[in-house]
Amino acid sequence: MATDRRDDDSALSASRTDDDYGSHLERSRTVWDRWSNWYEMSERDLEPMREATIDRLDLHPGDRVLEIGCGPGVNFERIRCDIGPAGELVAIDYSPEMVEKARERVETRGWENVEVRCADATTAEFDDPFDGALATLSLSVMPDIRRATETVYRTLRPDTTFAVFDIGTISDGPARVLNPLIRRFLRWYANWNPDGDVVASLEAVFDECDIVDTYMAGTMYTVVCEKRDRV
Ligand SMILES: C[S@@+](CC[C@H](N)C(=O)[O-])C[C@H]1O[C@@H](n2cnc3c(N)ncnc32)[C@H](O)[C@@H]1O
Predict the structure, then answer these.
(1) Using a 6 Å cutoff on CB, does residue 93 contact ligand 1?
(2) Looking at the domain assignment, is residue 5 inside a domain?
(3) What digits encode the pLDDT tens for the residues 181-192?
(4) Comparing C-alpha atoms, which of 82, 68, 71, 222 is closest to residue 156?
(5) Cα(209) to centroid of ligand 1, in Å?
(6) Residue 177 forms part of a structural domain
């Protein structure tokens, strides 16, 4: 079911260099530090889509879960419900202000099994493997989506799932004419990665990958990726 989500607006698509990577990452910090103060106002708007994405992980009590680009921790409560007090959630975000907000949420609720780290998902390393991983509205704003996806793949146990909910351009029909506008808005608002292709990266790295839900003319979508035991 996966489709090519790129369109013909190539004006913004140049090949990425290390400088592009560094400047994208730094701009990401500035943009998301700023939005961290306002995020609470809209964080419940997409809750049904986020929850449907977490459902796809089919988590169990005691599971160890990774979330990348966690923002202020909007998914923590639901994940914690699924994994219970015996499970463990490790969440990372590159914006120090988002991390602070997420840690405040953890401290206020007294969740002892949720750890929030300030890290770039592209280069982050983890000591122990995970039973599931989640990214909601975060992969598409990262400077190197393919490498961030590889980070997740490496750290998952075999036969586990990476569930992704993300946003993009319109893939079919005449409304594609709006895509240049959508791209520019997302770049301004979210430091969206104009060269990235979330679905193509997931398909390239994971053993199985399906778009399972689409919303709002396909501009929002959930992808379920499986890591299989290759031995
Ligand atoms: C739109 S917010 C999504 C927050 C939350 N996951 C949600 O569903 O609302 C995107 C988040 O990705 C984070 N982010 C961007 N680039 C990142 C990177 N390279 N590594 C880790 N987090 C990153 C941003 O700091 C921001 O908090």
Answers:
(1) yes
(2) no
(3) 999 988 888 888
(4) 68
(5) 22
(6) yes
